[in-house]
Amino acid sequence: MILILSASLNSESNSRVLAREAQRLLEKLGESVTLLDLRDFPLPLCDAGPAYSHANVAALNDHIARADAVLVATPIYNFDTNAALKNLIELTGSAWENKVVGFLCAAGGMASYMSVMSFANSLMLDFRSIIVPRFVYATGDGFVDGQVSNPDLRRRVEELARAAARMGRLLAAA
Ligand SMILES: Cc1cc2nc3c(=O)[nH]c(=O)nc-3n(C[C@H](O)[C@H](O)[C@H](O)COP(=O)(O)O)c2cc1C
Question: How many angstroms separate the alpha carbon of residue 21 from the centre of ligand 1?
Fold first, then answer.
């Protein structure tokens, strides 16, 4: 199963549009795919204690642990992923172990292009997550009316989705 996690809490999110596009393409390819929106799973801030017992933490932990690959759709905030996603990692850490992880990023400008790398590094170093060595990075001009309007962006989402599915399958079989 491929899990797509949409991390933006903004109702007008572009990264959520990327997440839906990845879902559409994966379903077209016949893959088993689940899209979860963090807005539907309000989470406590990680306190390294009682927060781990929250019902939504347990639910997300379960989805992540069962996935062969996770596509993370994230806004770029302050040259990083958003805090909601960082908090999710703090709450669900070991569920990411040995997991294939790919990134769909929405940003305001091109200057933050490498911003997801520190987050990717932390997943690799902490949990030995296997990072898909291509990621989608999109600015606002790739979208119109809540859809991906740029064909090149759509192609890149498809390449990432295919790579994540293939890597997830190979790793699950290994
Ligand atoms: C608090 C905040 C910080 C941001 N920081 C950056 C940034 O460092 N680099 C950037 O390119 N865009 C930045 N942006 C713009 C967002 O990345 C952009 O609005 C993007 O569409 C957010 O993703 P979303 O639409 O999925 O929520 C920032 C926006 C906010 C609200």
Answer: 20
Domain coordinates in residue numbering, the chain? 2-173
pLDDT for 63: 98
pTM reported for the whole predicted model: 0.97
- Examine the pLDDT at 174 and tell me if it is beyond 90: no
Residue 112 sits at the vertex; the CA angle it makes with 13 and 14, to the nearest 5 degrees, is 10
**CA angle at 97 for the pair 118 and 44, rounded to the nearest 5°:** 70
What is the CATH architecture of 2-173?
3-Layer(aba) Sandwich (3.40)
Q: Which residue type does 150 have?
A: N
Atom of ligand 1 nearest to the CA of 9: 27
Q: Which single residue is written with the structure tokens 């699950």?
A: 172
Q: How far apart are CA 12 and CA 147, in angstroms?
A: 11
CA of 41 to the centre of ligand 1 (A): 21
3-state secondary structure of 105: strand
Ligand 1 residue neighbourhood (C-beta within 6 Å): 8, 10, 13-16, 75-79, 106-109, 112
Render 7-53 in DSSP notation, one character per residue.
----TT-HHHHHHHHHHHHHHHTT--EEEEEGGGS--PPP-SSGGGG
